[in-house]
Design a protein that fits this description.
The protein is an alpha/beta fold. Helix content is 48%, strand content 11%. The chain is built from seven helices and four strands. β1, α1 and β2 form a beta-alpha-beta unit. The two termini are 43 Å apart.
Length: 210
């Protein structure tokens, strides 16, 4: 598996409250090898302990959190931060939790639809509520990308990307070579450094007529 976070001083993780947002976030985060976790609301203590174990194995972690701007969403974020951080004190490792979205300033900036808090919810909360799914996809992508890149060591990311490409060709080239083993084209005509699409062109050009 390609790890483009290799060499980063802190590992990044994206955590979303709504499971339905996970595929969209995974597509945004994949180029950076940033994993996406989904809580689906309130997590159990056991689940948080398991996550803390995983974070402890990574050393230092920054969790970029995306959730609803409402009493439940704010409470979920606070409880996640408090519980996982408490477990990490016991297990070793450090985690910083960053509330990435939805923030109060996003409501006005992105013209998000709002609703009043539920009258039955007595938790401390001020202002209108907004669902995380209301964020426009392009704005969500820009917010997440900017947050990742602002925390990335760009030199380490570049080096990890180069290593991943080298590893790709180390794995793929022998397989591609085997396809052409029975070709009538001399091996010198399609050295392993030539991309596959060019090799096919070379083969088509130099193949002896039937």
């Amino acid at each position: 598996m390609i790890d483009r976070q290799q060499g980063q001083p802190r590992r990044l993780v994206v955590w979303c409250e709504a499971a339905g947002m996970a595929p969209q976030l995974q597509a945004i985060c994949a180029p950076y090898s940033v994993p996406v976790f989904s809580s689906g609301g309130f997590d159990s203590v056991t689940a948080k302990h398991n996550i803390a174990h995983e974070f402890a194995s990574l050393g230092s972690v920054v969790v970029l959190h995306i959730g609803d701007h409402d009493p439940s969403g704010v409470h979920v974020f606070g409880a996640l931060d408090e519980d996982v951080s408490a477990f990490l004190l016991e297990l070793g490792g450090v985690a910083e939790f960053v509330r990435l979205a939805v923030l109060p300033e996003h409501i006005k900036a992105f013209h998000l639809p709002t609703a009043p808090p539920k009258a039955t919810d007595r938790r401390n909360f001020h202002g209108a509520t907004v669902q995380a799914e209301a964020l426009p996809p392009d704005q969500l992508a820009a917010t997440v990308q900017q947050a990742i890149e602002a925390r990335f060591d760009q030199q380490a990311y570049h080096q990890a990307s180069l290593r991943s490409r080298e590893r790709f060709w180390d794995i793929r080239v022998p397989k591609i070579d085997s396809i052409f083993d029975n070709s009538l084209v001399p091996r010198s005509s399609w050295s392993p450094g030539v991309p596959p699409q060019h090799r096919k062109l070379v083969a088509a050009t130099h193949r002896s007529p039937i």
